[in-house]
Amino acid sequence: MKNIYLLWIAVSFFTLLVLLVSIGPIVDNKVESFEGGSTGTRWSKDLIRRFNIYQSTVNNNANQFNLDVLQNQATPDEAEILMATGYWPWPDDLKYEYLSKVASSPIVNIQPQYALNYAMKLYNQRAVQELMAWNTKEGEFLLYGANIGYTDNEDNVLPLFNGVNNSIQCSTNKTGRSVLTKKVFNGINNMGNQNIDQSMSRWMTKETPVHPSDLPSEVTGFKFIKEPCDPCVALNSTPDYSCPFSINVDGDTSVSKPWQKLWNL
């Protein structure tokens, strides 16, 4: 699951600013596949029936949705508003945030209001909030981990590999769940022969599990907002937004707006 998120962050947020055409939920003539956090409210059979009619008539099947996923993202009231107005309801602060990102981008040449209207026809509030959340400092920590220093090469045997960064990050275990892992660089496996082409050498790392309560002491600037918890649950196939935290980046200790919404802060 983490690899999917990494791919989205690498290529999708740019597209988000260009009308949100090919990001999750993937809807432009494709089946929606973004598995967002659950709203806790499933749709009635009658609503599903009417939504399918809306899709095949008013929407002319221009976009297809996976209803199992969509029900986890949007409430029945939101679906009713879409069918009545043609737009998913977004709160004003989300609209302003989206407009600001479009207007301030030096590489997006499109009228912000047009981009907003187009996006609101396709993407429900929860899907957009989650995608924006991955492009914040909290999202970057969850996706890429944190630098926790480097391994000193005291003997200076392999000086070219001195200073490789160690990290703590969320990794996928054998069951497919995301777990906290500490990765420490231990050298390279070229049998000590420095004449071997560096490109043929593999970096050796030791990976060990990390208990969530150890994060504040391991990662500079990391702080739990409530009690210690596992932040990696946000990366599970069905995201769990129950572990709020803050992280200090360049003196900024505030929690970004998308995560405030997802964590109900």
List keywords for this structure.
10 helices, 36% helix, alpha+beta, elongated, disordered N terminus, 2 domains, 265 residues, two-stranded antiparallel sheet, four-stranded antiparallel beta sheet
- What global shape is seen? elongated
* Low-pLDDT stretches: 1-36, 155-161, 191-201
Give the CA-CA distance, first to last residue.
Answer: 26 Å
Q: Summarize the main sheet.
A: 4 strands, antiparallel
Task: State the assembly state of the protein chains.
Answer: single chain
Q: How many distinct domains?
A: 2
The portion of residues assigned to helices is 25-40%
Please report the total strand number as a whole number: 6
How would you classify the helix and strand content by structural class? alpha+beta
**Order of the strands making up the biggest sheet:** 1-2-3-4
What is the averaged pLDDT score? 76
What is the N-to-C order of secondary-structure elements (H for helix, E for strand)?
HHHHHHHHEEEEHEEH
Helix count equals 10
**What is the gyration radius calculated from CA atoms?**
22 Å
Share in β-strands? 5-15%
Describe the model.
The chain has 265 residues and is an alpha+beta fold. It has two domains: 2-133, no CATH class; 137-262, no CATH class. 36% of the residues lie in helices and 14% in strands. It contains ten helices and six strands. It has helices at residues 2-17, 45-56, 67-73, 76-85, 92-104, 112-122, 125-133, 137-144, 215-218, 257-262, and strands spanning 146-150, 165-172, 178-188, 203-209, 222-224, 245-247. A four-stranded antiparallel sheet has the order 1-2-3-4. Strands 5-6 form a two-stranded antiparallel sheet. A hairpin with a 5-residue loop joins strand 2 and strand 3 (178-188). Helix 5 (92-104) crosses helix 6. The radius of gyration is 22 Å and the shape is elongated. The protein starts with a helix and ends with a helix. The relative contact order is 0.13.
